Amino acid sequence: MTNNKRGILDMNAFDARQQESISNPLLKRRTENIGAASVLFYKQPIEMVSASGCWMTDAAGIRYLDFYNNVPSVGHCHPRVSAAIAEQLATLNTNSRYLSDVTESYLEKLKSTLPSALKNVVMTCSGSEANDLAMRIAKTNTGAQGFIVTSTAYHGNTEYVTQVSPSAFKNATCPDYVVTVPAPSSAAFGQDIATGFNQAVTAAIALLKTRGYGIAALLCDSIFSSDGVFSGPAGFLKPAVETVQQAGGLYIADEVQPGFGRTGDCFWGFQRHNVVPDMVTMGKPMGNGYPVAALVVKPHLLASFCHDVGYFNTFGGTPAAAAAAMAVMQVIEQEGLQENAKKIGAYLKQQLTQLSETDPRIGEVRGAGLFIGLDLCDPITAEPSASLATQVINQLRDERILIGAAGPYGHTLKIRPPLCLNLEETDYFIEAIKKVLGRLPS
Ligand SMILES: Cc1ncc(COP(=O)(O)O)c(C=O)c1O
Q1: Which of ligand 1's atoms lies nearest the C-alpha of 293?
Q2: What element of type H or E holds 112?
Q3: CA distance 214 to 173
Q4: N or C: which end of the chain has fewer CB within 10 A?
Q5: Is residue 256 lining ligand 1, measured as CB closer than 6 Å?
Q6: Under a CB-based contact definition with an 8 Å cutoff, are residues 406 and 167 in contact?
Q7: 155 CB within 6 A, ligand 1
Q8: Which of 344, 425, 441 minimizes the C-alpha distance to 55?
Q9: Cβ 162 under 6 angstroms from ligand 1
Q10: Distance (Å, rounded) from C-alpha 302 to C-alpha 334?
C-alpha cells in the first residue's frame, strides 16, 4: 500500500470538490464567503450549535463526544471562564497600552509555573504571532538565520512561521535556512531516541553552517503533535537542546499543543525533558476559546530585540484576555485537571495498548496524559495505513465521537479530549473504537 504525504489541513478534511453532491445551504454560503481558504472537518461537514464539558451538539440535536479539541481544554463553555470574560467585557476592555492589574496578576500567575529565568511575557492573540516573534528574537540575538524543526512540524500561519511548518506546505518545501530532522520516533532512531535525535540535530547545525546561515534556534512542539505525538522516553530532548545551546543557538519550546497541564505529569510539555528553554510559546488552551497567546522569554533576549524594533499587539493581553486566561488557570487548579489528565490519560493509554496487543491494525500507542497518538497500520505489512485511519475517524463520527489525525500520512489517531474527561466518557470511547475496528476488515 502506498501512502501519500498529507499536510496538516488535509487531515480529515472536507473535499471541496464534493460540494455539489451535498445539499447544505450553509456549506454553500461558507464556500461563497470563504472561498479557497475554507477548511472543514469531515466528508460531510457538521454544523455545531452548542457545547458543554466534553460534548458538542449539532444543528439536528445530535450530541458528540469531543475527543479532539484542545482549545476548550477545561471543558466547552466552562461557566467560570465564560462568566470571567463576560464580567471583564462589561467592566473594561481596551488595548494593552494602559496599566491593568488584571493583566499583571495573570502574568505573575503564569510565570509561577515556568522556570525563573523566563521573566518576561509578551502577550499575543495567536500561537502563530508568538512563534513569529520568537523566531525574530532568535535571529536578532544570535545573528544567525537558520532554524531546525521536525519534518512534519506545524508552528503557525504567518509568512515566517509557515517557512518552519513543513506540514503546511502543499506544493512547496522549506527554504534553505530551515533544516528538518525526523520526529523523535523509534521508527527513525530505534531504541535510543535521545542519541539519534541529537545526532540529527548536530548534522542539521553543520548543514546550516555550511549553507552560511548558522543556527538561530531549534523550534519544537514539545509533544510533536503534527508529527504523530512523540512523548517518550521522557528526557529525550535534553542532549539536542544542549547541543543547540552550545552551538550558540536558542531553544524555543512551542507549548501551543501540550501546555496547561495536558500531559499530566507536568504543566508544560518541555518539563518532561528536564530542559530550560530560552523562549516558550503558548496559545490554544490558554483562554479556553478566547483568543489569547503568549511568548515567555529571558529578559536580555527581549531587550536586545526591542532595542532595534518595537513590538506592540493591540489585542494581546487586554484585560478580557487576561481574565479568560486567569479563569482557565484557576479551573485547572480547582478542578484538579492536570491530575485528571494524568489519571484518565494513563487508563486510556493502558486500554488502547491492551487493544493493540490483540489487533495487528494498531501499531504504537504513544503519549502522555490526555495527549495520545495511536498508529493505524496494514495488518500484513505493518505499514502506516492512512485509509484505515480515515475509515476509523468517519465511523467514530457515526458512533458520535469526534477525533482527528496526525503524522506524515495521517495514519495516527490524534486523541486529545478536553481535560475534564471522565471515566464513563473514556469507556464510551474505548467501546466505540472496539466496535468500529470490529466492523472493519481485519
Ligand atoms: C504546535 C503549534 N504551534 C503553533 C500553532 C499556531 O497557533 P495559532 O493557530 O493559534 O496561530 C499551532 C496551531 O495549530 C500548533 O499546533
Answers
A1: 10
A2: none
A3: 20
A4: C
A5: yes
A6: no
A7: yes
A8: 425
A9: no
A10: 33
Cα–Cα nearest to 344, from 413, 425, 286? 425
CA dihedral 227, 230, 235, 237 (to 10 degrees): -10
Ligand 1 touching residue 223 (CB < 6 A): no
Which residues have CB under 8 Å from 309's CB, separation 6+? none
Residue position matching grid coordinates 522516553: 233
Closest residue by Cα to residue 320 from 359, 281, 292: 292
Q: With a 6 A CB cut-off, is 127 part of the ligand 1 pocket?
A: yes
How is residue 12 written as a grid cell? Answer: 480529515
CA 156 – ligand 1 centroid, Å = 5
Count other C-beta atoms under 10 Å from residue 115's C-beta: 16
Q: Residue 312, class by beta-carbon neighbours within 10 Å (0-12 exposed, 13-18 middle, 19+ buried)?
A: exposed
What is the CA(9)–ligand 1 centre distance, in A?
12
Q: Which residue puts its alpha carbon closest to atom 2 of ligand 1?
A: 155
pLDDT digits (tens, 9 = 90+) for 94-145: 988 899 999 999 999 999 999 999 999 999 999 999 999 999 999 999 999 9
Total-model pTM: 0.96
Q: What is the CA(22)–ligand 1 centre distance, in A?
A: 30
